[in-house]
Amino acid sequence: SAVISQKPSRDICQRGTSLTIQCQVDSQVTMMFWYRQQPGQSLTLIATANQGSEATYESGFVIDKFPISRPNLTFSTLTVSNMSPEDSSIYLCSLSGGQNTEAFFGQGTRLTVV
Amino acid sequence: SQKIEQNSEALNIQEGKTATLTCNYTNYSPAYLQWYRQDPGRGPVFLLLIRENEKEKRKERLKVTFDTTLKQSLFHITASQPADSATYLCALDTGGFKTIFGAGTRLFVKA
Predict the structure, then answer these.
(1) Closest Cα of chain A to B102: distance in Å?
(2) What distance in Å separates the CA atoms of residue B5 and residue A98, rounded to the nearest whole number?
C-alpha cells in the first residue's frame, strides 16, 4: 500500500484567485492522477501526471485552468486557476498500484470559492 | 463512453441485516471491477477487486459478485453495523491505469 499526504485539506478562496494543492507519496510512483468530486457526483478524472512529461488531460479539462507539476516520483501539485464558484469541489490525488490493482487516494481538498 | 450507474438513493437498513448495493455499467467490458468506501471529508478507500473471470469474491463480511453478461456487480455487507455507514463507490478500469467511478450509494445502518 501507499500513503499519500494531501494538503490543504480545505480552503475557502476568493473568485479570480488560484489555489495549489500538493500531494506527497511515501514511495516512488510513475503515474499520479488528479480527480474532482462535485457534491453528489462521481469522481471525475482531471488528468494523469507522469514524472518528466506534461500531464495528459481528460476531455473538458485544460492545462491553463488546471496546471499540474510532477517534479519527481513522489510529489505532484494541481493548481486551480482563476477560480469561480463552479470550481467549488473536492479535489483528490491518486495513484495506482498497477494494472488490475486498487487505487490509493489522498484525503482530498475541499475547495469553496466565494 | 463508459458509464457506471449506482443507486443514487440512500439505502437505510437495520443493524444486523445484509446491505446489498448495485452497480451497473454500459459501453464497456472491464477486465476488473472495484468497490471503495468513502467517508465524509475523506478520500475513497479500497475494499475489494473482482476480475472478469471471477463470479464472486469475499472478504470478511463483504461479498462482491460480478456478472459480465448482465454488466452488473452486487456488493453485500452481511451482519451490518452502524460503523458500516458510508458511501460505497463502484469503479472499473478503462484499460491501462485509468479508473472511472460511479457516483456512489450512501448507506445508513441504524442501531
Answers:
(1) 5
(2) 25
